[in-house]
């Protein structure tokens, strides 16, 4: 459909130019001028749309963008001025060498050849910026939808049910750990609800959430030892999208069977503006797993595509005994 519209538009443009030229000159000259100009229009239009604008204008290389287009304009103008010498209209009116020199540089010929080319450059620029704006709006809408789904995922009924059950048990046994658990849960909910409003948070905040998550899990069994979280080599001032890592950690706790000699090894490090995260755990397939788990991983994968397009590398390896996630993110801060 789009190609058909393009063909029709170029045909109408060619017809319009030909009609205008037939008013001013003879049929053969009008045909030569129309073919020459429309050919350069098409070449320059699609060169801008497919190469010049994405390669130079998009990367704010405005000077190169202008120079290339001025060069293309000059080449088309010189070629058309050269071709003009062989038209019946030019031959008929050229009786002396002096007139030939004047003919090459008349304002009329320059305008006839340059205006359609400038128009092609302008239209390609307009269509490109319009397409980019539509893509950005579509991406923003997709991101908004994903973020809404993400928020629902974080306040996961299964997680809340198990956590509140543990807190009830601790409180019922008059353990001092009950109030500690409530405080940790409160901090986690506060971060999950309001962290999203910040857009990006420091890694320090993300680490605090992960530590609260681990501590809350350990409260129900102090003998659990096989959980390692290493973040010793982290620049805590770097920023990251909130709660981007926790779905992988939740997944590790769900499948590791940590209460029965399973293990979880989490590592977080930074190098300049690059964040590296890994989470390896023992893997025990469960028949009655929480249905939201798969959605959580799919959701965070989608968030990575939207937030860090071409700036992240995610690898997930799974076998009968181990589940390994490695993630590398290049941040903008």
Cα radius of gyration in angstroms: 33 Å
CATH topology of the largest domain: Heat Shock Protein 90
Give the end-to-end Cα distance, rounded to a whole number of Å: 42 Å
Beta-strand content estimate: 5-15%
Percent helix, as a range, is 55-70%
| CATH homology superfamily of the largest domain | Histidine kinase-like ATPase, C-terminal domain
Major sheet attributes = 5 strands, mixed
Coarse structural class: alpha+beta
Word description of this protein:
The protein is an alpha+beta fold and 333 residues long. It folds into 2 domains: 2-137, no CATH class; 155-330, Heat Shock Protein 90, CATH 3.30.565. The chain has 11 helices and 7 strands. Strands 2-4-5-7-6 form a 5-stranded mixed beta sheet, covered by helices on one side. Strand 6 and strand 7 (322-330) form a beta hairpin. Helix 2 runs parallel beside helix 6 and helix 3 (62-84) runs antiparallel to helix 6. The longest helix is centred in the middle third of the chain and has 48 residues, at 107-154. The protein is rod-shaped and about 105 Å long. The protein starts with a helix and ends with a strand. The model is unreliable at 100-105 and 287-293 (pLDDT under 50).
Topology (elements, then pairings):
Layout lengths: L1 H23 L2 H31 L4 H23 L3 H6 L3 H8 L2 H48 L2 H16 L4 H18 L6 E2 H16 L8 E4 L8 E2 L5 H10 L8 E8 L2 E9 L9 H16 L4 E7 L3 E9 L3
Parallel strand pairs: 2-4
Antiparallel strand pairs: 1-3, 4-5, 5-7, 6-7
Features:
alpha+beta, 2 domains, 333 residues, 11 helices, rod-shaped
């Amino acid at each position: 459909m789009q190609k058909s519209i393009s063909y029709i538009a170029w045909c109408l443009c060619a017809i319009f130019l030909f009609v205008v030229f037939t008013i001013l000159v003879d049929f053969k000259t009008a045909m030569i001028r129309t073919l020459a100009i429309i050919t350069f229009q098409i070449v320059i239009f699609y060169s801008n749309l497919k190469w010049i604008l994405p390669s130079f204008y998009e990367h704010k290389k405005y000077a190169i963008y202008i120079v290339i287009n001025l060069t293309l304009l000059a080449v088309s103008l010189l070629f058309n001025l050269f071709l003009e010498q062989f038209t019946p209209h030019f031959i008929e009116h050229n009786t002396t060498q002096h007139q030939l020199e004047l003919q090459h540089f008349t304002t009329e010929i320059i305008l006839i050849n340059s205006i359609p080319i400038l128009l092609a450059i302008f239209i390609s620029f307009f269509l490109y910026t319009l397409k980019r704006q539509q893509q950005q709006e579509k991406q923003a809408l997709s991101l908004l939808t994903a973020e809404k789904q993400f928020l629902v995922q974080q306040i996961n009924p299964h997680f809340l049910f198990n956590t509140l059950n543990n807190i009830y048990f601790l409180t019922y046994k008059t353990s001092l750990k009950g109030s500690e658990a409530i405080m940790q849960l409160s901090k986690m909910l506060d971060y999950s609800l309001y962290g999203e409003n910040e857009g990006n948070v420091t890694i320090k905040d993300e680490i605090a959430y992960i530590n609260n998550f681990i501590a809350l899990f350990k409260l129900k069994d102090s003998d659990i030892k096989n959980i390692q979280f290493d973040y010793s080599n982290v620049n805590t001032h770097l920023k990251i999208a909130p709660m981007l890592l926790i779905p992988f950690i939740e997944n590790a706790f769900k499948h590791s069977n940590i209460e029965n000699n399973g293990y979880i090894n989490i590592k977080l490090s930074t190098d300049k503006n690059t964040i590296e995260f890994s989470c390896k755990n023992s893997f025990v397939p469960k028949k009655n797993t929480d249905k939201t788990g798969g959605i959580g991983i799919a959701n965070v994968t989608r968030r990575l595509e939207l937030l860090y397009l071409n700036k992240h590398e995610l690898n997930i390896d799974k076998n009968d005994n181990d589940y390994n996630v490695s993630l590398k993110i290049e941040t903008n801060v």
